[in-house]
Each structure stands twice: as structure tokens, then as C-alpha cells.
């Protein structure tokens, strides 16, 4: 029974991805669930933390500098060749760490507190700097700095601060319930599988609905560019993480992105077709995460 359950768990993420792609037409009815699923996943994960665990370190600043350096470098190299591709690849690097990154990091055995701290730091940085940078390089700078910053914050911070606040209150007000949640961390995995089903389906739906035969060369370059920077960021993040003896946390901090926010930013500030890159990044990063999770669970039961 245990072996069968483990085999099902190993197959669940690939099944969720394939299922999302097959049933993409119905994702419009389910996408509203994504923020709630992320909230629950983070809440369960944050129950393992205490406030003292959120401590910015020099490694966080190194990762942030590398992330912004890569974003600028790829933009200035690619933009003169193809401005749309330059925009799409840039946004795949510039966007902050996914709010769900601590969940996957926990499953992979990395430091939840490290990734959670970097997620807070990176999201705050992008909320402040993002509107200025995107207004400078984008094609549709319709919003003011204040409006853009407030909108980004409203989309990101409730999903980060909310679960943390509830988890901390539960720790002190209902310790028995809190303890039970801490001992059932596997719930995050199953919530992630449902979330992955919706995210991949939404990605496929978005790509099909914005498809234009005339843009096939550009779309191809955007998809390939998203794959290249996805693998590069995971690799560089793991390399940096190796210096502080936590490759998993480094890789997830730099490689796992808030792609929903990225698609919105691309549609708001850039050529609409540039949003294909972060849409493709959704699939690429989840393939990487699924592979890592399957590899880890398989190695644990060899």
C-alpha cells in the first residue's frame, strides 16, 4: 500500500500538468482558485516557521544583484536584435520569486525561511523599482508610478503576509491545531498538484487565445528564450546556494518566479505578444520543479 501510494505521488505532478493541458478550455472556471490555493499552501508551510526565522543575509543581496544583473544584461543584448524577445526574456528574469517557492523548497528539503525571506525582499524591490524600469523600457506606460506600485503590492503582499500572519496567530492562540498542521505538511503537495493543474491549463489557454500565425518566429524565440533563462536561473541559483551549503534554496529563490504577475506586467507595459515568454516560463519552471520532486521522492525510497 505504501509503495503504491508513493508511486501515485511521484506521478501526480506530471499527471496534473498533462491534465491541465488537456482540459485547458475549462480553466476559466477554475483560475479564481489559484490565490486561495497559494494562500493555503503558504499557510501550511509557514506554520513551521517563527518570526525570528526571517533574517536578511548577504546571500539574499547577492542573489538579488545577480537577478537584476542578468535581467539587464539579457535585455540590452536581445533588445537591439528583437525588441519583443528582449522584453519577454527580461520580464522572465526581473519578476520576483513566486509566493509558492517556500512550499516547493520545503518539499525538496531546502530552507523555508531563506526562500521566504528572499521572496519578501525581492517582491518589495520589484514593487518599488518595477514601475520605473518597466515604464522606461515598455511600450504601454499608461499607469503612474504610485498606481503601478500599489497594484503590484495589492497582488503580491496579501499572499505573502496573510498566510504568515494567520500561521503566527494560530501558533499562539491555538497551539494544538497548529501542531497538527505542522505534522501534516504533505497537504501542501496535494494542493500544489491541484494548483499546477490550473496553472498549466491557464498557460495553454492563454497561448492558444493569443496565437497569431504571423508571429510564429517571434513566439518560438520567446518560448525558447524562456526555457533558456529558466534553466540558467535554476543553475546559477544552485551554484550560488552551494557557497552557503543550500543549493535547493538558492535554485528556488532565483529560478521559481511569480509568473502570474509577470504575464500581467508584460500585458500592461509591453507588447502583448511578449507575455508569451512568462506564459511559457510557467510550464518550464513547473517541469523543472516536478522533475526535482520526483527525483527526490524516488531517491528517498530506493
Structure description:
The protein has 302 residues and is an all-alpha fold. It is built from 13 helices and no strands. The chain has helices at residues 2-22, 34-46, 58-78, 83-94, 101-108, 112-137, 145-173, 175-182, 187-209, 216-243, 247-255, 259-269, 276-300. It is globular. The two termini are 16 Å apart. The mean pLDDT is 82.
Strand-residue proportion? under 5%
Intertermini distance: 16 Å
The H-and-E topology, N to C, reads as HHHHHHHHHHHHH
Q: How much helical structure, as a percent, in the residues?
A: over 70%
Low-confidence segments, given as residue ranges, are: none
Number of alpha- plus pi-helical segments? 13
Q: Give me the Rg, rounded.
A: 19 Å
How many beta-strand segments?
0
Quickly give the structural class. Answer: mainly alpha
Shape: globular
Write down the overall mean pLDDT. Answer: 82
Major sheet details? none
Amino acid at each position: 500500500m505504501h509503495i503504491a501510494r508513493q508511486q501515485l505521488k511521484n506521478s501526480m505532478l506530471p499527471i496534473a500538468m498533462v491534465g491541465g493541458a488537456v482540459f485547458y478550455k475549462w480553466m476559466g472556471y477554475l483560475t479564481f482558485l489559484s490565490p486561495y490555493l497559494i494562500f493555503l499552501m503558504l499557510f501550511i508551510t509557514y506554520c513551521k516557521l517563527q518570526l525570528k526565522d526571517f533574517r536578511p543575509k548577504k546571500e539574499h543581496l547577492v542573489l538579488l544583484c545577480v537577478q537584476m544583473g542578468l535581467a539587464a544584461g539579457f535585455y540590452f543584448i536581445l533588445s537591439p536584435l528583437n525588441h519583443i524577445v528582449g522584453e519577454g526574456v527580461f520580464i522572465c528574469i526581473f519578476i520576483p520569486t513566486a509566493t509558492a517557492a517556500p512550499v516547493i523548497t520545503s518539499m525538496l528539503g531546502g530552507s523555508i525561511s531563506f526562500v521566504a525571506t528572499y521572496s519578501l525582499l525581492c517582491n518589495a524591490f520589484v514593487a518599488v523599482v518595477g514601475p520605473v524600469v518597466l515604464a522606461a523600457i515598455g511600450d504601454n506606460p499608461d499607469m503612474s508610478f504610485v498606481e503601478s506600485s500599489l497594484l503590484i503590492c495589492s497582488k503580491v503582499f496579501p499572499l505573502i503576509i496573510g498566510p504568515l500572519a494567520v500561521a503566527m496567530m494560530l501558533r499562539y492562540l491555538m497551539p494544538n491545531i497548529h501542531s497538527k498542521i505542522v505534522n501534516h505538511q504533505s497537504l501542501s503537495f496535494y494542493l500544489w498538484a491541484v494548483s499546477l493543474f490550473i496553472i498549466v491549463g491557464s498557460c495553454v489557454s492563454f497561448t492558444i487565445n493569443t496565437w497569431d500565425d504571423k508571429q510564429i518566429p517571434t513566439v518560438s524565440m520567446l518560448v525558447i528564450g524562456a526555457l533558456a533563462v529558466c534553466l540558467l536561473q535554476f543553475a546559477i541559483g544552485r551554484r550560488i546556494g552551494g557557497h552557503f551549503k543550500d543549493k535547493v534554496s538558492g535554485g528556488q529563490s532565483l529560478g521559481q518566479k511569480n509568473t502570474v504577475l509577470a504575464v500581467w506586467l508584460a500585458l500592461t507595459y509591453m507588447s502583448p505578444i511578449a507575455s508569451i515568454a512568462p506564459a511559457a516560463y510557467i510550464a518550464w519552471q513547473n517541469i523543472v520543479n516536478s522533475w526535482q520532486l520526483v527525483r527526490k521522492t524516488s531517491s528517498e525510497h530506493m
